[in-house]
Amino acid sequence: MQSDNAFRLYNEVIEPPLSDDELAAVNAADLDLAQRLGLVLTYCSQDRLEGHLEVTDKLLQPTGIVNGGVYCTIGETLASIAAVAATAKPAVGMSNSTDLLGSVKAGQRIDAVAEPVHTGKRTHLWRVNMSADGKLVAVTNLKLMILDR
Amino acid sequence: MQSDNAFRLYNEVIEPPLSDDELAAVNAADLDLAQRLGLVLTYCSQDRLEGHLEVTDKLLQPTGIVNGGVYCTIGETLASIAAVAATAKPAVGMSNSTDLLGSVKAGQRIDAVAEPVHTGKRTHLWRVNMSADGKLVAVTNLKLMILDR
Amino acid sequence: MQSDNAFRLYNEVIEPPLSDDELAAVNAADLDLAQRLGLVLTYCSQDRLEGHLEVTDKLLQPTGIVNGGVYCTIGETLASIAAVAATAKPAVGMSNSTDLLGSVKAGQRIDAVAEPVHTGKRTHLWRVNMSADGKLVAVTNLKLMILDR
Amino acid sequence: MQSDNAFRLYNEVIEPPLSDDELAAVNAADLDLAQRLGLVLTYCSQDRLEGHLEVTDKLLQPTGIVNGGVYCTIGETLASIAAVAATAKPAVGMSNSTDLLGSVKAGQRIDAVAEPVHTGKRTHLWRVNMSADGKLVAVTNLKLMILDR
């Protein structure tokens, strides 16, 4: 994410939201596990992130539904980017609490939205709601420590 | 995991522990996300599971350390297999609570051990401790619902 | 809560909401720890509960702010009543995950609202947001098992 | 806890463990909610705390078992004292994650032990196991922020 287009994400509070070109640059950067699993960022501002992921066979567990770790990973990644977008400072996940509420199969799409619950000086709590076909399937609450630059 | 060698894992309580041949069959089955990320199961009995994962670049997040979702996924997978090994019944993760305690880089190995905290009739709680170079780096507490066959 | 006025709470889905007389009967029943700590129920329907608690000295910890267990207890109680109000069935808390986001002192009031995140056949997830002077100070996510009557 | 006997608890790392006189002074101080609910501290060193609580009617919820908030409160208090005993610095609970694994009735005793999972410079994670009649009934994982004095 050192590319010119993505420059803003790690260097300033994201207001106004990232443009389509900036989003494309972040998505093309291939620097994060969640991207490699298929997560595409579609909106990024200082107080809201959105993304989605098309479920492929490789994300499943043996019974044919999405491995719960996928939701945790989407939540971890979106909330971490969100904390960076809100502060322009490095952020470290401290605890990832993900409730698994439904099952998703290959071919479905997981839509994810990250919103802040609490943004303090030293810690943030972001919530990431994930749904498929309009039904809530998982929620991540990620607590982060905000570091000095 | 329908191969002959792996037959026991989804069909009976795993006592005695899986043999080396049975472990090899499970590891070769390529049926789970965590396996695809590199998780290798090295011990499986009804009350303890062990595995490890060699960290490659693809598991990192942009600052060069392992994405927290990797620990969640290892915990989710090991605890889920553990519940199946303990009951011979299907098990569904309900909540994955993962504390992120240290950072790990490419080239290091994550060693994981799953042990039961509570094994009731309808719900289980398994804890998965993950360490690298002998230092605890993450802990997953996975609550599961045990289903009827 | 076996009094005549409170009859509906454990015997039917709470639609329409409890009347003022019914709320008064529940609050007078003195059957729950949270009530004894000061929690007053002010609204109860099948999909939303509200209550508040005036903070007294006995709820503090040694540094003079509310002991975090108070928020957990408010969350546990409101979410449990909520699940009963939504199902007319017994509900058992399985995991209480409470994020502590601010501090509250004696003389302040904690306002709490419980709303459903997920209401399945066998498990519910309720969220209880707690605030003081309009500032969010704690959030409980309570996972419950719904039992057969 | 400003009494002479309790002096060490907030002023130095607790090594050696508190003496019986020091424990008695802490228990007599009446400065914390958990004490008022009945928690008695029986052992306190820098890496382990023990306490117990005799269950009285006032701690129950309407169905006659201990309100889950009691376990959260015991966990919150023991883990907070533990972090102070280990660091001699103020500690603030950030998230209280309590798994509820069994039910306890009036007349039973809850025995609680706090042990460290992770003790970093800025954050600690303490685990509090609670049992009754030798059976594990609840586990609190409390994440704390360690403050500068």
Automatic annotation (TrEMBL), chains A, B, C, D:
Residues 64-134 form the Thioesterase domain. It comes from the Bacteria. The keyword Hydrolase applies. Pfam families: 4HBT. One of its GO terms (molecular function) is 1,4-dihydroxy-2-naphthoyl-CoA thioesterase activity. This is PaaI family thioesterase. PANTHER family: 1,4-DIHYDROXY-2-NAPHTHOYL-COA THIOESTERASE 1. Keywords: Hydrolase. Belongs to the thioesterase PaaI family. One of its GO terms (cellular component) is cytosol.
